[in-house]
Design brief:
InterPro entries: STI1_HS-bd, UBA, UBA-like_sf, UBA1_UBAC1, UBA2_UBAC1, UBAC1, Ubiquitin-like_domsf, UBL_UBAC1. It holds the Pfam family UBL_UBAC1. Keywords: Cytoplasm, Repeat, Ubl conjugation pathway. Pathway: Protein modification; protein ubiquitination. It is a single chain. This protein is an alpha+beta fold. α6 packs antiparallel against α18 and α16 packs antiparallel against α20. It contains 20 helices and five strands. The longest helix has 32 residues. Among the domains are: 81 residues, Phosphatidylinositol 3-kinase Catalytic Subunit, Chain A, domain 1 (Ubiquitin-like (UB roll), Roll), CATH 3.10.20; 97 residues, no CATH class; 42 residues, Helicase, Ruva Protein, domain 3, CATH 1.10.8.10. It has a five-stranded mixed sheet.
């Protein structure tokens, strides 16, 4: 008995298959390298293939169960091949041919043609075009101009609405209706959809109402505020500047009714004057309520409280704009906010000639909306969504935008 046979390793019987469907059994010791096994397989299935030394490197053995490519330098034992395992002999894919120089040039040319122009190319192509100042600063300035002009429009429309309501024989009844709407609880003025979204998340309704008021009816910001102040002991404290209580509202309504009562007995001019006074009382009920968070932030910068309130009133409770106003020339002044638009201007005439606006001015709810937006501009979104006042505000905005472009 030969010595190498006494100390030889275990012999494994392996099933080898090819992609063409050939199949046979190879018996190899477990210390045989994968390269030697591959040579035996090629010699069996492709006679004469070993004459080309590249033939072995162009083929590979794959373990069928694990789908692992076997390494040529490792032995059968090292690759953990067991008796009766199935191996697959396949030919490696030939590498793709290198592209010709002409093809490379054509591809580069195509990429250059599809490449986006750089800054210099854009400037060169647009050198002869007229310049337009449409940067963000101008856009923001135009928005500020609209808000300022809108205040003037509302002031003048309020005067027109008061005169139209005074001419109505049911003026006192209309006033009572407007006064009743004015004395509604503040909960009725909160965006119901936003409130429902917060309460469905599990937040208490009263706390959700407070969060929405502090964050201008933004559900996302209100939710962040609720989470941030969840453990705050003062989270349920009422906000400053709440509407008057029911008793106060009833007293004001009764006094206003008493004032309006004798108006039916006096002449037409006196009735108009008294009704005008009544509407002035309505306006005095609605005092401007500055954003508490903006007040605190601006006062921490060193500004006086009265200056901060004036700045927020002029800039529609917008903190950044109010800060710029305080640091700048402080124009427009708070006194200028009560000035109306020129009644002879084309803009105001176009607004008054609009049928939707004309019909809306006879509705006391429209007057209420104008008064509310005048003192609390952040409530304009609620009135824009209202089925009665929304169409009037939409027409005013469209007319302004149309005339502003001409």
């Amino acid at each position: 008995v030969q010595e190498e046979k006494i100390f030889a390793g275990k012999v494994l019987r392996l099933h080898v298959c090819t992609m063409e469907g050939a199949e046979w059994l190879e018996e190899v010791p477990e210390d045989t390298t994968v390269e030697k096994l591959k040579e035996r397989c090629l010699k069996h299935c492709v006679p004469g293939s070993l004459e080309d030394p590249k033939t072995v490197t162009h083929h590979k053995l794959i373990h069928a169960t694990s789908e692992k490519v076997l390494t040529d330098t490792k032995t059968v034992l090292e690759e953990n091949i067991q008796d009766r395992d199935v191996l697959l002999l396949i030919k490696k894919r030939a590498p793709p041919p290198l592209p010709k120089m002409a093809d490379v040039s054509a591809e580069e040319k195509r990429k250059q043609e599809q490449k986006a122009p750089d800054k210099d190319a854009i400037l060169k192509a647009t050198a002869n075009l007229p310049s337009r100042n449409v940067d963000r600063t101008v856009a923001h300035h135009n928005m500020r101009d609209f808000q300022t002009e809108l205040r003037k429009i509302l002031v003048s429309l309020i005067e027109v609405a008061q005169k139209l309501l005074a001419l109505n024989p049911d003026a006192v009844e209309l006033f009572k209706k407007a006064n009743a709407m004015l004395d509604e609880d503040e909960e009725d003025r909160v965006d119901e959809i936003a409130l429902r979204q917060l309460t469905e998340m599990g937040f208490p309704e009263s706390r959700a109402v407070k969060a929405l008021r502090l964050n201008h009816m933004s559900v996302t910001q209100a939710m962040e505020w609720l989470i941030e102040h969840a453990d705050d002991p003062t989270v349920d404290a009422p906000l400053p500047g709440q509407p008057p209580s029911e008793a106060t509202a009833e007293t004001a309504a009764s006094s206003a009714e008493a004032t309006a009562g004798p108006s039916s007995e006096v002449g037409g001019e006196e009735a108009k004057d008294e009704l005008t006074e009544i509407f002035k009382k309505i306006r005095r009920k609605r005092e401007f309520r500055p954003d508490p968070r903006a007040v605190i932030a601006l006062m921490e910068m060193g500004f006086d409280e009265k200056e901060v309130v004036d700045a927020l009133r002029v800039n529609n409770n917008q903190q950044n704009a109010a800060c710029e106003w305080l640091l700048g020339d402080r124009k427009p002044s708070p006194e200028e906010l009560d000035k109306g638009i020129d009644t002879n201007s084309p803009l105001f005439q176009a607004i008054l000639e609009n049928p939707v606006v004309q019909l809306g001015l006879t509705n006391p709810k429209t007057l209420l909306a104008f008064e509310d937006m005048l003192e609390n501009p952040l409530n304009s979104t609620q009135w824009m969504n209202d089925p009665e006042t929304g169409p009037v505000m939409l027409q005013i905005s469209r007319i302004f935008q149309t005339l502003n472009r001409t």
